Amino acid sequence: MQTALKGKPSGARGSVWNKMWRSRLLYLILLPGLIHMLLFKLLPLFGLVIAFENYNVIKGGMAGIIGSKWVGFAHFEKFLGDPYFWKLLKNTLLLAFFNLLFVFPIPIIFALLVNEVRLRKVQRFVQTVTFFPYFISSAVAVSILYTFLSPQSGLVNIVLQGMGIEPIFFMAEPGWFRPLYVALNVWQLFGYSSIIYLAAMTNIDPHLYEAADLDGASRFRKMFHVTLPSIAGTIVIMFILAIGQIMTVDLDKILMMYNPSIYDTADVIQSYVYRQAFATKGFPNYSYGAAVGLMQSIVAFILVISANKASRKFSDSQLF
Fold first, then answer.
1. pLDDT tens digits for range 134-172
2. Can you list the residues of the chain whose pLDDT is less than 50?
3. How far apart are CA 115 and CA 204, in angstroms?
4. What is the DSSP string of 241-306?
């Protein structure tokens, strides 16, 4: 009996605090990330209360939040009752849909093709070249786009003129905004996004390819019947995350690309919130902007939960 008792860890030794102390270096490494999350992700959530108030800009800060008049859901009702709401929703959803249609699958296709390159030096060179645009800021990327599409000296219009076609002012044409925005996103993100799928491919069991070789499968058949099914779990998880961003667009690009002449297709919920919250004339309407932003976040949250539940039904992979 005494021997059995000696073999058991004491309460103090087996306590949570004791375990944490033994792993103190790991927790120390984790601490900066936790502090960052607390200061810049969790604490700002308390500021969402201004969505239900008429925030007093003059008082500002905590005094403004405490001393502002409570209006409940008035800002939400105002936004939903605004006839312009439907145009904003349409523009946002269309941009998000085209983003999902092109920006999401292209990295998968690219990763499949890169994975088939047998020369490692060529593979690394292609990956480096396609990964580089991700490090270019949105401002520089849009400037490059303006340069290429300039009606006077842009390369695209020079080629069009050489073919006998009149120059097109692409950046002032509402119909060209969505294709240009999506194309710029594809160019900047497909190399970076493909890394995730290439990393997933490194975990595929080589015996699967050997078995496919014995069956006489071609490289394309191995791609579709071995590689693609093996990374299906990663694709599902990335798709769920993409669904969560369906109400979100790259505001930096839009603000630098759009102008009043293309508001018809370029004005989205985020740009509308930006104009409302940081109005150049009169007092900025922070409360209204916060209410619209909160609505958008709630819809995105519901979409993520729904997509995760759907993936649980139709596949073995889910985000949580």
1. 998 888 999 999 999 988 888 888 998 888 888 888 888
2. 1-10, 12-13
3. 12
4. HHHHTTT---HHHHHHH--GGGHHHH--HHHHHHHHHT-SSSS--HHHHHHHHHHHHHHHHHHHHH
Contact 195, 132 (CB under 8 A): no
Q: What is the pTM of this model?
A: 0.78
CA 306 – CA 308 distance, rounded (Å): 5
How many residues belong to the chain? 320
Judge contact between 300 and 248, C-beta under 8 A: yes
Distances in Å between the Cα of 249 and the Cα atoms of 28, 36, 94, 178, 270 are 35, 24, 10, 12, 8
Q: What is the pLDDT of residues 83-98, one digit of tens each?
A: 888 888 888 888 888 8
Contact 257, 180 (CB under 8 A): yes
Enter the tokens of residue 48. 């969402």
Element (H or E) spanning 311, and its range? helix 286-314
CA-closest candidate to residue 246, choices 302, 193, 311: 302
Radius of gyration of the chain, Cα coordinates, nearest whole angstrom? 26
Using N-to-C axis directions, what is the helix angle for 138-149 and 174-201, rounded to 10°? 130
